[in-house]
Amino acid sequence: MKILTATATWLAALFVALPASAEPLACDRKLSVLSADVAQTGQQLEALAKAVATAAKRFGDDEVVAQTAQTCPEDITARLDQHRTAIAGLSTGDLTRLAADDLVCAQFFSTRIQIDLDKAQSEGNARMVERLLAISKTIVAIDAVATRQATEAAFLQSKQARLLEGVEAVQSLCSALEGIYE
User: Fold this and answer.
1) First vs last Cα of the chain: how many Å apart?
2) Domain spans of the chain?
3) Is 0.70 topped by the overall pTM?
């Protein structure tokens, strides 16, 4: 059930980041620029995913100690502050917005190519249809990658929020036990 809730949370974050469907899609980038941007976003996402995993592992080690010990370690507050700072410092929000912008541009190009294809077909311009179909393959590939990246970025943002909640929960537990049972 927790997995379903987490999935719903990061999907909601993704759709909040996208513009309302009533607004026309727009993109001020050329397709080649979008392609390069999507590739760069992928590299940034890979690095961010590793950073989130590292932060989760480091916090997880202290979380287990704090939850299984009779009393929390003396330096737990300082370590939790370090975890909080490290986790909060991850740029998941910025990358989620960037990935959503890439996705909006990819969807713009998907819509635009379809309009241009329809026009070329209605005019009977076979050469233009051929060219546009070749370009559409690139657009579909970019759109698929941008969609995956937007979803992954929203997931990482959700994971960051859950980690921060975990830090606060351990802090509350240790604060409640502090001094009473020493």
Assistant:
1) 37
2) 31-177
3) yes
